[in-house]
Amino acid sequence: MPTTPPPHLSPRKRPRQARAAVTLDAIFEATIQVLISDGPRRLTTTRVAERAGVSVGTMYQYFPHKQALFYALNERYLDLVAEKVEATCRALRGAEAEAMVEALVTTYWQAKTERAEVTQALYRSVVELDNESLIEAFARRVDVATAAMFASVANAAFADLNTVVLTLLTSIFGTVRSVFERNLPVEEADSVLRHLIVMCNAYVRTVQVSVLERERI
User: Fold this and answer.
1) Mutual orientation of helices 161-182 and 116-125 as an angle, nearest 10°?
2) Which residues lie closer than 8 Å to 91 by C-beta, 6 or more apart?
3) What integer pLDDT is reported at residue 123 of this predicted model?
4) Cα–Cα distance measured from residue 60 to residue 63, given in angstroms and rounded to the nearest whole number
5) 209: which strand partners?
6) What whole-number distance in Å separates Cα of residue 52 and Cα of residue 47?
7) N or C: which end of the chain has fewer CB within 10 A?
8) More confidently predicted of 210 and 138
9) Residue 76's closest CA among 150, 17, 156, 14?
10) How many whole angstroms separate alpha carbon 68 and alpha carbon 61?
């Protein structure tokens, strides 16, 4: 997910060799572990380096401070989530609208909850972070993928597809974030998931038109 981070959040360098990529993976995983155990305020690049098994100098080669580290970690996380949504949207092209909705909601939900403690920690890490470019890049990817999927609905169409996609994704993303902010127990969270699918399907049924009607618009 290519972005242009603010200058003060840019990494000093990006990995070009396999060994460097492995080192960066270790740094990111160590960052997650320290975030979960200590929180973003107590996290330092020194603690991350110790947990990752690298020198502070190696850390500094990539990240001048922890805000740059947080930015890069969130960039990677959003990139993985976007890839999962894009894969689902490709796989569901030509399907019924109801199947598309359920797959879209479920994919995003699972991407956020498969390591719920990581998602929770990352939400806390961006409180004071200028991550607007990351969110914009992520939104563009999922908007395009979702629009292409719903444009291929087997038995219906939409008079204003862009607004439908925006409303649908905003509802899904906002609901999932609220589940984390409320720290809901698993049983309640699962109930919200089921009701979210029902709600989104009801909305899509309301705004969709038949193919013949779409041709007359």
Assistant:
1) 100
2) 103
3) 86
4) 5
5) 157
6) 9
7) C
8) 138
9) 14
10) 12
Distance of CA 41 to the CA centre of its chain: 23
DSSP character for 158? E
Domain residues of the chain, as ranges?
Answer: 7-216
Per-residue pLDDT tens for 69-100? 999 999 999 999 999 999 999 999 999 999 99
* Spatial distance between the Cα atoms of 32 and 49, rounded to a whole number of angstroms: 12
pLDDT digit string, tens, across residues 121-131: 888 888 767 88
pTM: 0.85
Coil, strand or helix at 93? coil
41 residue type, one letter: R
Question: 75, 141 in Cβ contact below 8 A?
Answer: no
Which residue's structure tokens are 């396999």? Answer: 18
C-alpha distances (whole Å) from 75 to each of 66, 122, 176 are: 14, 11, 19
The span from the CA of 168 to the CA of 175, in Å, is 11
Tokens of 204: 């899509």
The class level of CATH for 7-216 reads mainly alpha
